[in-house]
Write a structure and sequence with these properties.
43% helix, 2 domains, 0% strand
């Protein structure tokens, strides 16, 4: 089993700096594992949002010629497909968008 490095693996920096090199090495390793080296080196201000585009496939197109909107089974299928596409689009846009987007009624 591989050793996992977490923030708990980084020793607390002593006030007198006696463990500075150990602390710095642990911080550098942790930043590299979290793909945050540019943040640690002040090249980036915050991490880039994860990209989820393409992880969830679009729903397959269906033949609309046989759909009867008065039939509950067909109507239910259309509503499920619409909800799937709405949820897929929200996930593919990424979490930073979820936090700032106002909830729309309707």
């Amino acid at each position: 089993m591989a050793t996992r490095i977490t923030s708990e693996s980084v020793p607390k920096l002593e006030a007198n700096g006696s463990n500075f090199w150990k602390w710095k090495t642990a911080m550098t390793l942790l930043a590299a594992m979290l793909d945050a080296t540019n943040i640690l080196n002040s090249r980036d201000n915050k991490p880039k949002s994860p990209l989820y585009a393409g992880l969830i496939p679009a729903s397959e197109s269906i033949d609309l010629t046989g759909i009867d909107l008065t039939n509950n089974k067909d109507l239910s299928q259309m509503l499920r497909m619409a909800q799937y596409e709405k949820d897929r689009a929200a996930i593919c846009e990424g979490p930073s968008d979820w936090m700032v987007r106002p909830k729309l009624e309707g």
